[in-house]
Amino acid sequence: YRDAGARVPAEREPAGRFVVSLAPEDAGKKIDVVAVDTHTGRMAAQPLVVPHIARVAFADTAGHWAEEFIQTLGAQGILQGYPDGSFRPAKPVTRAEFVVVTVRALGWRVQPGAEPVFRDASAIPPWARPYIAAAQENGLINGDGETFRPQAFVTRAEATSLLVRLMDRLAAGLPPPAELTCRDRSAIPAWAREDVARAYGAGLVRGLPDGRFAPASPLTRAEAAALVYRVINR
Question: How many CB atoms lie within 10 A of CB 53?
């Protein structure tokens, strides 16, 4: 493809990039990848056999309720474990980590060395900066003149609201808000209440075993895996 308004000689044309969500049972199937040159109207097709993706075996996720989500996203390189082979599903997710996982899941282009524009940009880990810059460029997060607080834990309400608003921008077609039956629904902040209700209606989020939504609780790595998996497979 070409960026809108770009005038690049054909021999210097940048390669296009797209993301297709496939299920493990699609492995071995044959599909045709079709490209259209928007300038000439010509089409080209390339046959492709869906590869088999090796399952990722983390040392501490066997039998966990989010095991399928974690393994699938791990095999795609969206989630990563720790050097000791663990995933640590109960560990809270920082704001920087959540944005990195979301950008990976969406397949957005990440420019090495890119720097986000925040007042506390120096506090963002170097490995996360290009991803956060990509999120800022694509409007996932705000920036200029504000703080990002990269090491703060992202709450269940914040993560849900962020991804619901993202799906609206991507025209993902979420259903109307569902009635919230969680017993702490009055604790959900007003700015997030409709987003949480829509996420419930779409099956993107679930309540906790005790019947609460716990909007102010930190999102765990397992919960992040489940939420991101459901969003990209919607």
Answer: 16
